[in-house]
Amino acid sequence: MTADLAMMPAHELVKLYKARKASPVEAYKAAMARVEAFNPQLNAFQHLDPDGALRTARASERRWKKGGKRLSDLDGVPITIKDMVLTKGLPTRMGSMATDAEGPWPVDAPAAQRLREAGTVLLGKTTSPEYGWKGVTDSALFGATHNPWKIGRTPGGSSGGGVAAEAVGMGNLAIGTDGAGSVRIPCSFTGLFGLKPTQARVPLWPPSAQGTLSHVGPMTRTVRDAAMMMNVIARPDPRDPYGRPDDEEDYLKGFDKGVKGLTIAYSPTLGFVEKEKIDRDVAVAVENAIKVFRTLGARVVEASPDLQGLDPRRILNAHWQSNVALLVKGYSEEKRALMDPGLLKAAEIGAQLGQEAVVTAIHQRQQIAAIMNQFMAKYDLLLTPTMPMTAFAVNENAAWGGDGVDIGWTPFTLTFNLTRQPAATIPCGLDREGLPIGLQIVGGHARDALVLRAAAAYERMRPIPAPPMAHQV
Amino acid sequence: MSRDLTQMSAAHLARLYEKGKVSPVEVMKAVLARVDAVNPTINALRHVDIEAALTAARLSERRWRKDEPLSEIDGIPVSIKELVRVKGWPATMGSKLTDKTPADADAPAVARLREAGAIVFAQSTSSEYGHKGVTDTPLNGVTRNPWNPDLTPGGSSGGAGAAVASGMGPLAIGTDGGGSVRIPSSFNGLVGLKATYGRVPAWPPGMNGDLANTGPMCRTAHDCALMMNVIARPDARDATQLPADDTDYVKALKRPIKKPKVAFIARMAEHPVDIEVAAMVAKAVGQLIKLGWKIKEAEPPFPYAEAGKAFAITWLTNCQRLLQLYPKERHGEFDPSLLADAEMGLKYTLQDCVDAQVARRELAVAWNLLFEEYDFVVTPTIAVQPFAVLKKTPDLPDGKPNYRWSPYTATFNMTRHPAVTVPCGISRQGLPIGLQIVGGHYKDAVVLAAAHQYTDAHPLEFPVLPEKKQ
Q1: Is A210 on the interface with B (CB under 8 A)?
Q2: Residue A317 near chain B (CB below 8 Å)
């Protein structure tokens, strides 16, 4: 029974709370049992807070017992938060030996604060590579995090700890961050749903080194759970000066309306990714997913934006490399010696870029965004592969043997960090090795709810499977 | 009250159109006559499309006769700053170097104005690429202030400000990357709004990215609201536009502003403020208190020195791109001051540039938190009164150049907050002085309503400009 609570979608779990068939303390215990069973292999946590979580679970249990006085629709649901998001009283190390192990940690970031106010039970902080710098998850601080679908493979990153935990029930919900794909890469690699919302729809604070490339988003086992999280975390916070107008959007409104009658663009290459770089199993799985949307009554047309020779990979590289150059410079030489050599290399290259190259990249980002906006004006949604490949070996800095300094191996995700559009990934099949493949669903600005609605329609036809490991309790 | 059609607000003209007392053709002709009389001196309009203006006026006249106007500004003449694209006119940017082929599309604001039936009749002057807060260029020569033609109308939307103040069309579109709507609005006795970034869509992406805003410049806050009802509407070409909303900016003017909590920031730092500007703004603050505003004196929440530095680096490194866009052998055709700025931009390192971005984020957080505490911030708009033409900066009392004469405006380009300037008095030299009212993000309608409340209680008696030389 308790094992089931841990793998249960949050929206079903709270129904059990309501019916008094389960309690937050039981759900907490179920999740902790899975931490004990799986975390030694997966290494998904930077910090666990069993005592704090138990106290929160008990408090929630009291609310549910009284009946009706709950703090939100997620009251009492066990969650995890990535090490990149500030949490009051719990260490935030940014995956780095260079940060202070003694704290203090006096304040919550907006998303963490909203989730606490909502009564969720925070189990702990999940691993990230140093400052989320790469699309895999290992650090000198915590070692490598593994993929629950195959030990020895990376769960992707940088929110790799969050997905490894979420996939096997170490928490029912997870929070990740996404500066170039760090929610969508790991969700694709571990077979989860993940949403990078419209930029700043989930407020951020303190300002990220990656500026408006940076996003906070939900990583979940069902689409509905992500919509419920958005209802909690996508609320205004004055600390984010890029925060969007408060629209009081209910992300569950119209959630079940399906995709019938929508006009959807399908772009297998997004107009710039070389076909030979896309794994054939990925290409086939994505093609098959497109057919599902047609079956559901959407008008799907194959169309790619004309990027007029601009390459999103180069533009994003210039942004993030120059940003980490500054980040690293903020540390003393002794501290820098503790940092990931790959990150230091990226910073070194960033420092050599030259101001003109970076200013040009900033302007090209605006051009790409204007092109994509005009493209999206013609369609309700855009479908692409999430990743060109599936999970590769741990302790590699990037796919294809890359050093991670060039982030171009995740071209489909990073494009929408540049444009700030909402983009989700949903599992759409397994490759020849049994590893998950992701389909990316992209919307126009602020159309997060439509992205969720389309993903939910697809999910009803193709429910998201758990990794075999999750059944081995 | 003047019967001169060129001295009336757009709202007033629209009422006369509605009653059939005046027609758009009469107004257009009066404005064109005014252009003939005044523009040779003021040089605010670099191009006037007489034929198209009269054709548009006749079409509007027919619509009003049938009682089918396209909007409340149908048939109102509006000038467009040369940094904003108008189909059929070259996108000159105040530069000799630009391609002078006519543009093949309207910018979003222009497209909306046309759809609303407004008469896009003239292109107003700007400093080259809007790089400075005054308006003279190798392309167009010197634009002058109708309050005193020896003085600058400010800039970079100097042509727009001088045109509206001198009766060459009651409405103007300006752009504001560091104050370029508010400076000339203040220097010409107008109401000018820099809305929340993204509220008024723009295209194509400009040199100054998300510092730059398209905005209305008018004789009254009501006219600004009429324009916002038209131009603050979505356009897919702008990827950073805010979500569409159906705010009625005119209706919002009538919503009472009750006892707002307000921070008065008299100085951004140790910068000298002209004594009359300081006195006039203090007087205006007193008037606002009488209107029920709860005003407290406050300090800027972020060190201005750092903010100003971050702004300068962002601005100058953006200018530097022009050197890449045009071949070196043509660089001599730039306004020497723009060339100097661009070359200075090249000297900044990547480190400076990223540092500036980081400072901008911190600055924005600090101001955002201040707007949690206060409904509005009021400041002088400009630290000085209009100064002599052909100077890029005014002089300090000791004769040295005062580089920081507009510290109040650029801050809110960095933070993206909505900021409006209203005239709050006339100096002894007979020059208008502006008060700036700033609000939290997305509070554009409320900020305009606050401007309206003040100007309604304390209207500026607008003389017919330029006044005859004595």
Answers
A1: no
A2: no
Instruction: Give pLDDT < 70 ranges for chain B.
Output: 1-2, 468-470
Q: What confidence score (pLDDT) does residue A473 get?
A: 75
Q: Are A355 and B350 in contact (CB < 8 Å)?
A: yes
Q: What is the pLDDT of residue A203?
A: 97
Query: Backbone phi, then psi, for B307, in 5-degree steps?
Result: -65, -45
Establish if A263 touches chain B: CB-CB under 8 angstroms: no
Tens of pLDDT, residue by residue over A348-371, are 999 999 999 999 999 999 999 999
* Cβ density class A195-229: b for 16+ within 10 Å, e for less: bbbbbbbbbbbebbbbbbbbbbbbbbbbbbbbbbb
pLDDT for B468 equals 59
* Percentage of chain A modeled with pLDDT above 70: 99
3-state secondary structure of B308: helix
* CA closest to A377 among chain B residues: B236
Which residues from chain B sit within 8 angstroms of residue A363, using beta carbons?
205, 207, 209, 321
Look at chain A and count its residues. 473
Mutation site for A-interface testing, chosen from B207, B211, B240 by largest number of A Cβ within 10 Å: B240
A377 touches chain B (CB under 8 A): yes
Query: Does A241 contact B236 at a Cβ distance shorter than 8 Å?
Result: no
Q: What gap in Å lies between CA A166 and CA A44, rounded to an integer?
A: 10
pLDDT in tens, A251-286: 999 999 999 999 999 999 999 999 999 999 999 999
CA diameter of chain A: 62
B348 sits in the region (left: phi over 0; alpha: psi -120 to 50; else beta) called: beta
- Which residue carries 């049938």 as its tokens? B66
Hey, what amino acid is at B248?
Answer: D
Chain B residue numbers with beta carbons less than 8 Å from the beta carbon of A204 are none
pLDDT at A2: 47
Contact A247 B240 (CB under 8 A): no
pLDDT at A118: 98
**Dist. CA B174–CA B186, nearest whole Å:** 13
Among A322, A359, A420, the residue with its CB nearest the CB of B321 is A359
- Of A326, A370, A376, Cβ closest to residue B358: A326
Residue A338 C-alpha, separation from nearest chain B C-alpha, in angstroms: 22
CA distance to A218, A253, A415, per residue, from A457 (Å): 18, 14, 25
Query: Which H/E stretch holds residue B17?
Result: helix B10-19
Please give the distance of CA B396 from its chain centroid, rounded to a whole number: 25
What is the ipTM metric for this complex? 0.85
Q: Do A377 and B236 touch (CB under 8 A)?
A: yes
Residues of B within 8 A of A377 (CB-CB) are 236
Q: Considering the entire predicted model, what is its pTM?
A: 0.92
Peptide linkage before A422 cis (omega within 30 of 0): no
- Indicate the pLDDT class of residue A68, thresholds 50, 70 and 90: low
Q: Is the dihedral of CA A458, A460, A466, A467 positive or negative?
A: negative
Structural contact between residues B177 and B153, judged by C-beta atoms closer than 8 angstroms: no
Sign of the torsion formed by the C-alpha atoms of A53, A56, A61 and A67: negative
